[in-house]
Design goal:
The structure holds 2 protein chains of 2 kinds. The longest helix of chain A has 29 residues. Chain A has 7 helices and no strands. In chain A, 70% of the residues lie in helices and 0% in strands. Helix content of chain B is 32%, strand content 31%. Chain B starts with a helix and ends with a strand. In chain B, 36% of the residues are buried. Classes of the chains: A mainly alpha, B alpha+beta.
């Protein structure tokens, strides 16, 4: 229960803040939603819950004209969820790496000019997303350990 | 059991958001702004003590007004018809939210077709500092493409309408295609020169100049008298 509440709170906060300028650094906005979901992909959340959170996050981030970008983002997040159990690395390594790779894949799909012409902005965002993902993963891990200290962290719940 | 209830509640929220009108989805941006402002308060306190926060806000507001007035004075001097901007119908709007990704420089505002806004209208601060153009119009909200959008190019004039240039949007907007024979200096004002907008709206000033003798044109970075993240209210010139 605490894990689900924690995940819901993280997604709601990331979704609300994504469209504000609160967390902009050096003119670069992090992808809070992608970072939070990179952490949640490695948490013992079931598929139903995860997809529910993806739907909620996408609707909170919605901006007119950004439907295609949101669809790509959602697809990448679901892909992270599907691949997470197969990654043998520890969460402390896998989560920021997943966030960085997903960020790179996102821009390669929707706007390759950010990779070719604005590499400095991309690098700042890569580091930013990886850091936020690691922080979110730390919080989720504490909640998971507190709630079920002897549960296998890779075993997903039925929901 | 509680987990199922929480899941059901979340799905109800999803369905409500999905079935909401576009204005409701845009309006959640104002909630997000309030959340962001609330969460930003501790950082503001750490940066400048509580007793100076109000003063900092006041300085910011006065700075915008000062820049708008300066731009107005210059525009009055240049305009072939006096008081032209004051006679234009205008709409004041609040900035709802910003584009969620770094690929575009869009913001959404709470004025749309119902308020007389049309695609292509100039969006300014105080009526004279140009920040962008209305891109899409809905019933009660619109999206605005700002000069920070990387895919936007806009003809501009530099320094008393003598020098032509092309503003290229982005995280740091650039003014390109400035002919080498013109001596452009740091601090020179940059104005809109597109037929789509009122002539002479201030865009910003020259910050740094790149003059490569091997190139046919000079290039300048733009300095603007505001931070887009601080802009809460805009004026749409109809």
């Amino acid at each position: 229960m605490k894990l689900h509440l924690c995940a819901l709170a993280l997604v709601a906060l990331a979704g609300l803040l994504q469209n504000t300028s609160l967390v902009t650094v050096a003119g670069v906005k992090p992808n809070l939603v992608l970072a939070v979901f990179a952490a949640l992909a490695f948490a013992p959340l079931g598929m139903v819950w995860f997809l529910t959170l993806v739907a909620l996050g996408a609707l909170l981030v919605y901006f007119p004209g950004a439907a295609s970008e949101l669809a790509v983002l959602a697809a990448l997040i679901v892909l992270m969820f599907a691949l997470a159990p197969r990654i043998p690395a520890k969460a402390a390594v896998a989560v920021p790496l997943a966030a960085a790779l997903a960020t790179l894949a996102f821009y390669l799909i929707i706007d390759v000019s950010l990779v070719t012409d604005r590499l400095d902005a991309l690098l700042i965002e890569l580091v930013y997303n990886a850091t936020v993902a690691l922080a979110a993963s730390g919080l989720v891990t504490r909640v998971v350990v507190h709630e079920a200290p002897f549960r296998d962290p890779l075993r997903r719940s039925r929901l | 059991m509680r987990t199922y209830l929480l899941l059901a509640g979340t799905w109800i929220a999803v369905v409500v958001l999905l079935l909401s009108s576009g204005s409701a989805l845009a309006s959640r941006g104002s909630v997000a702004n309030d959340v962001a402002n609330f969460l930003g308060r501790p950082f503001t306190f750490l940066a400048s003590f509580v007793q100076y926060r109000e003063a900092a806000e006041l300085v910011k507001t006065l700075s915008f007004e000062n820049e708008a007035l300066k731009a107005k004075l210059v525009a009055l001097g240049k305009s072939p018809r006096p008081q032209i901007v004051d006679s234009q119908p205008q709409v004041f709007a609040r900035v709802y939210s910003q584009y969620p990704f770094n690929t575009h420089g869009f913001v959404s505002i709470n004025a749309g077709a119902d308020q007389g806004v049309a695609a292509g209208d100039a969006v300014t601060i105080g009526g004279y500092i140009f920040i962008g153009q209305v891109a899409r119009v809905y019933a009660d909200h619109s999206t605005v493409r700002t000069i920070f959008d990387p895919s936007w190019k806009l003809p501009v004039k530099v320094r008393e309408d003598v020098v032509d240039g092309l503003l290229v949007g982005g995280r740091t907007p650039l003014v390109t295609l400035i002919a080498n024979e013109h001596e452009v200096e740091r601090g020179d004002a940059i104005y809109t020169a597109s037929r789509e907008f009122l002539f002479g709206l201030t865009v910003g000033t020259v910050h740094t100049l790149t003059n490569d003798p091997g190139q046919a044109f000079q290039e300048a970075t733009l300095s603007v008298p505001y931070k887009l993240s601080d802009v809460q209210e805009v004026t749409v010139i109809l």
